[in-house]
Structures are given as structure tokens and as C-alpha cells.
Amino acid sequence: MSNTPKQSELKSPSNEDGGGGNSGNVFGFPHKVDLDHVLKHHAGNIGFVQIIMVIMSALTLPPGIIFPVFGNTELPHRCRLEPEVEKELARRFSRSSEDTFNSIATLVGPWPSSNSSSFVNWHGFGCKRYLVPLMSVTQNTTRLLTIPCNNGYVYKYSSDQYPGGIINEWDLVCDRAWMGPFSTAMYMVGMLVGFISGGMAGDYFGRRQAALVACLFEAVSIITVSLSANFWLYTTFRFVLASASSVKITVLLVLCMEVTTPRPRSIINGIWAFIQYFLLRVFLSPLAYWFPRWQWLHGAACMLSFLSFPSIYMFPESPGWLLSQHRQLDALHEIYKIYLANRKLKWNNNEEPALTEDAFINLIRQECAVIKPASPSAQEGIPSKSEFQNTRKPSKNGNIITLTLQCVLLFAGQLATTYGLLFYGNALQANIYLVNFLNSTTQVPATVIFVLLHHYCRKRKIPIVIMYVGSMIGLSIAAIYNLVVRPKSDFVLNICINLSLIFLNSAMNMVYMYVLELFPSEARSLGLGVASGFGRLGGVLCPIINTLQSKNFHESPIFIYIGIHILLLVNSVCLPDTCGRSLHHSFDLNRAEELGMRRETEVSDDSTIQGDEEEKDGDTPNWTSKLDDTIASTHVIQSTSHINDDF
């Protein structure tokens, strides 16, 4: 869909109600717009526009955050000797039935014996070599001098591990082993920057324009990362890629939610989660199998992102954001484009002719004027500040600051556990392709659980708490079993981690919806950006937590994640609950809305009866219904009763 026209180009169709000939937005349309009602009864709250927007938004996001599952694969390694010695050792063991790599590694430097536990700390070996290589494995090694590897490393490749990651390409082992987790941590920091800047840009410039600019940075960074010749160039542009992708996630997720109504929102979020967390991730396993070099894998995995700019260019701007900017006519223009697209692409045949834009706007104008005429004094009280200035008001409100900090902790714990368990797959004694595939499939039941709970449960916090309890139980079973039984494989551990990921992925979907409902509409994009942005600090910690298994015991990260679950439960209990709407409507208009609600209760018996009759009539707008403040702008009618948002 094309760009939003200038307000001066959108003249009011009628001079009635103060709208004729005035290009000023507030006075050109002096009524408060019930966005949910217009979408549901006129434009369509779940149709072609909403479905194609969420599909293209999710499908064109690069799976960069999960790329380290293959790109950072750690392989067993040993010191490389002089070329002549390497040839001699290869010739000696060429006909051996034993593991050639382990046999040679035993002669080159300190190496665990064949009788060692399957959970031996391999990270402590392969970093030093004997000053003089052994001639036999039976030779005493207690007093032999060792030196650091000075000729590079030889890696042990297997069909269970990805062969062409950045670890073995740039020798990020031993004294450089910190660089692998550092690159992942920097990606998380980039997401932090992107979510915060995306929230600010989305509230100031608009959702669509912020996403378009992010697409350009994203495309450049994808190409540069895939062509990186050294680690620092790779890490720098992975940081840029994370920032640009996070800006898109912030504004596009909010945009997709702002063009629908409460009930279909679970479907929109479910489609987003299914594509982003299942389809894109599950296809990463066959792509990794087909492309054994990380450069080709990265380029192939991010290829769909180049469709992002032309797709978003066709999107409408958020009507909710335009209303919060007091641009009612621009908002109705965008809603009219949604109305036309949904009407033309309906499955059922509608023989009624489509309304012209003037007729459409006039219809909404008449509904607003009949139900609640505009008050000149109220119009004068509308603040003229920019949206960016309005979003700075939370810093002056202690409750909003506390709420934001709690949301940051919620995201931090959620991301630390979810991505920590996903990255922990590198340390499992199993096929990495199968592990990633199974981890990705957990999103299918997670999405089903989320959609059902969101559809049938009005409370938002209780399902999240239940998901955290289920995840913690699964991890506890895995940790205790491995400590007591000491199995030879990680089969049970992998099963329990996948069960835990089902609950965590479902909770992730719920958390995004829950946090959106906690913030008022004038700061929703910024609130989500700050919470999810600083929450990426949890993602920064998860690579560090996973390194504990190489320094302590194999299950040590699992116990850390169990502790994080406990903190999440405590924090969730302290957070307020929501029922499909924001707890606050507007920073400026909270007091005015309270007064408005009191005035609305002083209604005559005749008006009450008339309102009840209108509510029973499905074709008559129900303007006294409870609006969903999650999506509505700051200029909607404050209402007192419940709206049945059946679609």
C-alpha cells in the first residue's frame, strides 16, 4: 500500500460537525474514533491484510539469533605439529582400526584416556603439546615438558557436528575461546540497542517508516557478515544486523497488533511465532547440512530478508499510532485501504458496491457525531506535544518506572533460559542437526498452547506462571537424573530440555502480548522496546552460563536456569494482571477518563434501555463497550462495559 498522504490532501467530505474545509487533523475530524469498532465492523479485523502482513513480517526476519547453534560449533582439537611429523603420524596410523584422531592426539600432547567418562571436559585438552612428541602411548608423560600450540590446530570432524563454523575457521579455541561466546553476546547487545531505538523510532517516526529504514541496514549487514574475512568484521556487522532486525521486530509486531482487535490477536501472534520460531529455525538444519561452510549457510538462511523492504513498503501505517498523533483523517485513510483490500480479497462474494473514501469517512463521522459529539473545550485540552515528548513521561511516574523494571527482569529471565537451552545443544552428546530440529519443533505445541490459553483465558499472568512451573519441573527432572544415574548419553537430558522449551516458547509468546497490554498506547512501542531491549542482557549472559559446563560439571548450566525460573516466578507474582487491555490508557488523560467514566454512569433510565437495545443489535455500533486499550489510540471513547469481540 502506498505512503500516507499529507493531511491537506485529505479533505473532509462534509462541512458538518466542524469538519468542512479545515485541513487541521483534530478539527477536520473532531470526534474520538473507536478503532476496534471501525476495524471489526467496517474494515475487517482479521482478513487478507492482517494475515499477509504478519506472514511477510515474520518470514523476512533473518534467523541470526539462532545461527550460533551451527556457526559456533565447538569441535575436539589438538595441536598441529610440523608438516613432516604430521605426515609420519598419519602414515603410522593409516591402517589402525582405532580412532586415528585420538591416537595421534595422545602422542601430541596431554589427552584424556579412552577409559575417561563420556562427560569429560574436552575443553581443557588440545591446547598444549609436548616439547618432544611421544613415540608410544605407553610412555610416561608425568615429567614431559609442554608448550602452547604454535602451529595452529587440527580438528576432529564428525557427521554429528557442523564442520564449517567460525570456531575452527579462525581457531577460536584455548586462549581465544572467549571470542566465540563474545560474538554471541555482542549480538544480544545489538538486539538491546535495536529494541530500544526501535521503540523510540516507532513512536516518533511511525511503525512503517522505522521498519523501512531498518531494512536497508539489515540488507547491508547480511551481505557484509557473509563475506567477512576476519572475526572482528564478522562480530561488528553481526551487531549491526541484530540492531536492525530488532528494530523491525519491535515496530512490525506492534504494527501487526494495531491493525486488528483483541480476539484475533492471538491468531496473529501465533502465526508470527510459528513462522519465526518454527519454520525459519527448522529449515536451518537442512540448510546447514547442504551448506557446510558458515558463509554460505548465513547467506542462504537470510535470503528472504531481501524481500522485506518491498513488502513493508506496501504495508499501511498504524492507525493507532496516527490517532495518537491526533491525525484522525490519516488514520481513517489507512483503515480505508485495509477495508478495500480485505473486501476485494474476501473468500465470500459480496455484491454490495464498495464505498468511496469520502463515503467511508463520512459514515464513521456520522456514527461518532451521533453517539458522542466533540467538545470544543476538550479539543482545546489536547496536548500538542510530539509523540516522542509524550513517551518521556514514564520517567516522571514511579509506577511506570517500577513496571518497566519488572518487565525488563521478565524478558531477561525469559531470554536467558530460552536461548540458553537452545545454545546448550552444542554441548549435548547428540547429532546437532537433530537437536536443532527437535528444539525447533517444540514451537508447534507451544503455539497451540498459547493460542488456546489466550483465546479461552482472560487472565494473562496466570498462564505465564503455569508455563514457568512446567518448564522448571522438566529441567529439575533432567538435572537430578543425570547427577544420580550418570548415563552414557544425553538422551534423557535432551528430551527434558525439549519439554522445557515447549513451556518456555509458549511463555515467550504470552510475554510479548502481556507486556504490550501493560503499557498505555502513547508509549507502547517504546515500553516494549525498553523492556525487551534491556531484557537482552539475559541473552548476553546465556553464553557465559553455558561455558560453566566446561569448567565445572556437565549439568551446571541447568541448575543456573532452574534458579532463574524461581526468580521469574517471584517477579511474575509481583506484576499486575491484565485482561486483554492496557492497565493505563494515557499518561495525560487518565484523570479525564476517570471523570468521563463517572459522568457516563449518570445516565437516565431511558438512555440505559436504549443502549441495551443497541447492544443486542449486531449491526449497530456498540460505543459503550469496553475498548481494548492494547491497540486503541489515546483518542478513543472511554467505555464501561465489555465488548464481545467474536470474529
UniProtKB/TrEMBL annotation:
- Where is it found, in Gene Ontology cellular component terms? membrane
**Compositional bias (Polar residues) spans?**
1-15
What's the superkingdom here? Eukaryota
Keyword Membrane in the entry? The reply is yes
- Tell me where the transmembrane regions lie: 48-70, 178-198, 210-233, 239-259, 271-290, 296-315, 400-424, 430-453, 465-485, 491-514, 558-575
User: How is it placed in the membrane, per its record?
Assistant: Multi-pass membrane protein
InterPro entries annotated for this entry?
A: MFS_sugar_transport-like, MFS_trans_sf
Q: Where is this region: Disordered?
A: 1-25, 598-625
Q: Which UniProt keywords apply?
A: Membrane, Transmembrane, Transmembrane helix
Q: Which SUPFAM superfamilies does its entry note?
A: MFS general substrate transporter
Please name the PANTHER family in this protein's record: SOLUTE CARRIER FAMILY 22 MEMBER
What name goes with this protein?
MFS domain-containing protein
Q: Which organism is it from?
A: Rodentolepis nana
State the taxonomy lineage: Eukaryota, Metazoa, Spiralia, Lophotrochozoa, Platyhelminthes
